[in-house]
Amino acid sequence: MNKFSSLLIVLVLLLSISxxxxxxxxxxxxxxxxxxxxxxxxxxxxxxxxxxGGIARKLxxxxxxxxxxxxxHDGKWLAFTGQYDGNTEVxxxxxxxxxxxxxxxxxxxxxxxxxDRMGPNNLVMGWKHNNKEIVFRSRMxxxxxxxxxxxxxxxxxxxxxxxxxxxGGFTSFSPDDKKMAYNRIFREFxxxxxxxxGMADDVWIYDFATKKVENVTNxxxxxxxxxxxxxxxxxxxxxxxxxxMNLYVYDLSTKNTKQLTNLINYDIKFPSLGKDAxxxxxxxxxxxxxxxxxxxxxxxVQIADDMVNGRCEIKDVSKNVSNYEISPDGKRALFGARGxxxxxxxxxxxxxxxxxxxxxxxxxxxxxxxxKWIAYISDxxxxxxxxxxxxxxxxxxxxxxxxxxxxxxxxxxxxxxxKLLWGDRRQRxxxxxxxxxxxxxxxxxxxxEMRDYSxxxxxxWIAYTKPEEEVMNKIYLYSLEKDKxxxxxxxxxxxxxxxxxxxxxxxxxxxxRDFSPTYSWTEWNHAYQDMSRIYFVTLNKKVESPxxxxxxxxxxKKEEKKSDKKKKDDKKDKSDKKKxxxxxxxxVDGLKDRIVGLPIKASAYGSLxxxxxxxxxxxxxxxxxxxxxxxYDFKKQKxxxxxxxx
Length: 646
Prior knowledge:
The chain is mainly beta.
């Protein structure tokens, strides 16, 4: 074989390797940097990569999470938050990889997960410059999951010592370790964007000698994750025109603040300071900010592992059920589980996976009242859209909506199986005609999302809860024929959970109208609990209240001729046929004046459902140890407890 042939083979092999390893990895989290080495979290493990990018090397393999790696200032060690022994604790390992050493031992917390809005416990924040002490945030002694304290633990795993501040979040020490820049609040795992309330943090400096604190940002925006470098403190803030988290610097000499980055598509997340650069998350990728040139560069990272988490396998989804219901005839059940839609027979036949799309997420599936179709929401196109599929799984799914630009909430079929109703993240309430695929906007709120809505039995009315800006939430009725909404409740009392009675005569809802304060023993302030009852409004003025006064009267039996009896039987047959189709008649005039409360105790109610003369609902008040399923019988005018729910 000549040299040219050998060179060609080597070139082909190199190209093959580059194709395999050339896909840039995303969802890279919590990066840290020391000189030319970056360590970050990917799929719950720690990886190391050159500061210039390239193929990353895996440092950890445990099934638990390894998070928030932080280099010691001399670059020899990595401290990180890990779950090797069950709990989320602080660990130490050599910077190039090795056996982790556990440094902390704390009690188990109920809320201790990277997906929780409070974030995991025992988060590593950084090092003191002596390279012997690691600072971490812990809720080991906190009575409130919002609040945590700052602790120092040494590399020889002695008991942690609390830093003498009441509470804290991200922190960084001055070069001489005599002062500390820190956040007093930790809320970086919350999803509040452009927040300007009382939980918006500032950067504070704490002097260990004088025990004094100084606010160096003092801005209504979020000023978080301080990083002390020389005579400057770098931090993130969402101040500015675009209100996106960008990198800023505060000069301790001039006391001036300067914006360093102008990224507008996403927020910068979880920056970390190195000797010459700051690394951070941005849109799922790692970026490096050079402290000298003040230039930002993307670090292109490839993950060349066996991708075991992405391999095909057979999964038991029975413990991942997200929604369920029974078919209209009761012969099959519908389940949504792990992103697919299933139907299961009551007794005989196979379980059907109607979608069978491992790479696509289908959710919120609902069976049509006529039993023919199953509707669901899918991200098959990359955006949320509504689809229909035949209940037996035959044929391809039909895409009903297009141009999805936001997240859709629960869909509901109209009783005639001709329309679908839903709310979305753009705070709209909408429905679509199945045949024409025309979407009608019912209402768009400027306050909050529309998540509470229901159909009338004749599919001609929609009841919904409207989030209000200046008063309490109200119940409204929307007429499809007139394309108009009517107010049912006023703004004095909060109302929710509107549900039509099965005969279309009443609209039930829950409202907070009971005020019985509980007073504190020590502070003499008061709180209100158990404020709600179930109420209803008679939709038609001619409909009598089920609680009208009753009087037992003697019935006089009259003799009937055969011809009269036959006519009566004929009328009865006709009336029975008319009862099959419910017609909802609403007299909008005086709706608020026809509100009546059920004679049940004040508590907390939900999950209303009307069947015949019975109303089913749940209750979980301050004195209820478990959620109760109850039924109110309007004929007997009696409440019955059916079950204690788990």
